[in-house]
Amino acid sequence: MANLLKNKEDQEVRIKKPSWLKVKIPGGKEYLRVKEVVEERNLHTICSSGKCPNQSECWSSGTATFMILGNTCTRSCQFCNVATGAGEEVDVFEPAKVAESIRVMGLKHAVITSVDRDDLPDGGANHWKKTVEMIRKKNPGVTIETLIPDFKGEWKNLEPILEVKPEIVSHNIETVERITKNVRIQAKYWRSMEVLKRLKEGGINRTKSGIMVGLGEEKQEVFQTLRDLHAQGVSVVTIGQYLQPSKKHLPVMDWVKPEVFAEYKTYGESIGIELVESGPLVRSSYHAERHI
Questions:
Q1: What is the pTM of this model?
Q2: Which range has the top average pLDDT, 6-10, 94-98, 126-130, 247-251?
Q3: What is the DSSP letter of 244?
Q4: CATH class label, 22-291
């Protein structure tokens, strides 16, 4: 009975969010303006689809992370709130709509991500290229960050990205090697590392990756992941607390304390990573304008 009670208490500790995880309630003129732009143009954002805890803060400051190639992912990662299923028909007008939205919002730095499109022969790579080209055409001087998939290791599909050379190209490793197969079912730890390596070798000056913690990883495993990322030449790493989007997703195994996040930042920068953003509510596109 004592063990059962202990397990129940442990579960309650996992479920209850600690005091340092406070999310702002959406509101304000700028938030509503961004919401209107997104809805009027029938655009998708990872802010909404991914239930990002920073949506209010980012939208209230006039920024959003646009998600291209639809709102349905062909993969079923156990941490992600984006819907899974057959890929949607690609909207050929989407690059122009995203570019125009960036112009209307007056952004100086644009962040673009996408769902995985394993159903497309090129994984959506050429749509990515058209989107970057259109953003630059309509917004001279804007800087761009692209958060790309792994294209299933079909390396020829990295070429369109390398051709347009966004100022920052990001690909998230998401978690440590040991639990990757449980967290990212169709992805591979070292394939993601290879993506980052090839981006750097292909001439992308600033590459970036992100890690979630609180999924059952050990501290030393996070340190090893940081070393692995540094070995691929990654310039920027973001580390944030995993939050369970729904009961269907992986449970939170640990609420990582702010002092541990500070330790990860100190360690990552001590081994040569240029910038490590590390904190409970940090996400891959959080304060992205600083990463340029």
A1: 0.84
A2: 126-130
A3: -
A4: alpha beta
